Amino acid sequence: MPFSPEEVWSVVASPQGHVEMDGSGTVKGVAAGPAELEQGSTFRMKMRLGMPYQMRSTVVEYEKYRLIAWAHFGKHRWRYELEPVEGGTRVTESFDWSQAISPRFIERVGYPARHRANLEATLERLEEVVASRSS
């Protein structure tokens, strides 16, 4: 992505940024949380998957401008890794269910495979959001 890690970070480390970049269509708003996330931050998002609900997450991995991951009660993680490269930043988003309370259930319901398209759409939207904020 043709932006600095700091520019990308301003979106991925912000609960409001999650709303803007969400490629799944399920993140609807911020219910509570700091403007910028850091290690140990908790935040609640307004969600909708069939019906509205809220999801509380905690930042469980953190290295400013390089890595952020959060988990909720199920213990699976959403992670963003930022790597400076010539001309910008390589962004890797991952869904990690290795530490989940019930990883077999997550696999049985097919969530990892179904979530792949959401990850791709989120990365596309992330680039659009960073571009709009940079202009």
Q: Topology, pairings included?
A:
Layout: H1 5-12, H2 15-21, E1 27-32, E2 42-49, E3 51-63, E4 67-71, E5 77-85, E6 88-96, H3 103-108, H4 111-134
Antiparallel strand pairs: 1-2, 2-3, 3-4, 4-5, 5-6
Tell me what the structure shows.
The chain is of the alpha+beta class and 135 residues long. It has a single domain (5-134), classed as START domain (Alpha-D-Glucose-1,6-Bisphosphate, Chain A, domain 4, 2-Layer Sandwich). The protein is built from 4 helices and 6 strands, in the order H-H-E-E-E-E-E-E-H-H. The protein has a 6-stranded antiparallel beta sheet with strand order 1-2-3-4-5-6. Helix 1 (5-12) crosses helix 4 (111-134). The longest helix is centred in the last third of the chain and has 24 residues, at 111-134.
Which strand order spans the largest sheet, edge to edge or round the barrel?
1-2-3-4-5-6
CATH-derived architecture: 2-Layer Sandwich
Mean pLDDT: 93
What is the overall number of helices? 4
Count of DSSP E strands? 6
Subunit arrangement of the protein:
single chain
Whole-number total of structural domains: 1
Q: In percent, how much strand structure appears in the residues?
A: 35-45%
CATH class: Alpha Beta
The structure class reads: alpha+beta
Order of helices and strands: HHEEEEEEHH
Q: Give a short account of the largest sheet.
A: 6 strands, antiparallel
Radius of gyration: 14 Å
Low-confidence stretches: none
